[in-house]
Amino acid sequence: MSSESSQKAWELENAVKLVDPHRDALYSYDADEQKAISNDHPWKTDPHHFKNVRISAVALLKMVMHARSGGSLEIMGLMQGKIAGDTFVVTDAFRLPVEGTETRVNASAEADEYMTQYLQSCRDSGRMENAVGWYHSHPGYGCWLSGIDVSTQMLQQQFQDPFIAVVIDPDRTISAGKVEIGAFRTFPSDYKPPDSVTGEEYQTIPLNKIEDFGAHASQYYSLEVSHFKSSLDSYLLEMLWNKYWVSTLSQSPLFTNREYSSKQMLDLSQKIKNAEESLRAQARGGPRGNAKDSQLDKIVKDSNKIAGEEVTGLLAGDVKAKLFNGVGAPAVKASGQ
Length: 337
Known about the structure:
Elements: H1 3-13, E1 16-18, H2 31-40, E2 52-56, H3 57-69, E3 76-84, E4 87-95, E5 99-100, E6 105-106, H4 109-124, E7 130-137, H5 147-160, E8 164-168, H6 170-176, E9 181-186, H7 195-198, H8 207-216, E10 220-229, H9 234-249, H10 253-256, H11 258-283, H12 291-324
Parallel strand pairs: 1-10, 2-4, 2-10, 7-8
Antiparallel strand pairs: 3-4, 3-7, 5-6, 8-9, 9-10
Helix pairs in contact: 1-9, 3-9, 11-12
């Protein structure tokens, strides 16, 4: 598989759509229009005003590469773009020099100074896009907002709105072959969302993160994420992809993600053990209901997800072996010659 065909497969897997190649409308920036939108600020009266996020392929690839470079440590960066109706349009992204741990990322005064200088240098070079959000990684535990993330996003929306939070899981991205990404906005502190809003699509959450996930899930909502590219992206995307492609080609998902896979299996075994104990308690006359069935359904989904990712890794290794084993070796002459 060539670099070009691999790039096309990546774009297809992540539903990267080509915008008008002649106008590149999503990249045009009207400062007066953006100022008028900011002055009107419809999001102040409607907590659900923003519903979509459109991320350029270049920005997406930059964020994924940054997230993968952090390994098991969280990373953080900012996104640039504009507002179009109920949609955030992200045209670019850049990393911040921050200190990350396995559970949180902290922006220092150095990061604030770097952000200010970077945005000013962009304006000096004619790029007037504002910072429209921040992104960070959750290595191995899904795309959602923790308590610290919720506090950070609330603060940003209070002083820098409109602003959005994006989360990328690099481990699940490697295992699934598709970018695991989520975009979120927090609700005002005095707003209580309807029950239908808090019930998001199911995702696998490790046991040691479930409490934090559940405690803050009603304080924010997710936006629909889509991706785009244009003629302006082509050269940059090709340069970035060559670097990403070499890194991906030289790695095995099963080997690179072996620690993540092991943690998933241990977490699943603990969930099975907890479910078994709950069923035994129920058999001894404990409370009955649909909660146990729901717990087992989630375990089945988690099991299928892990199995699917392992099969994908095995297939990827098999394809690479068939393509590259024996490359460079001298050709074997046919018998009789």
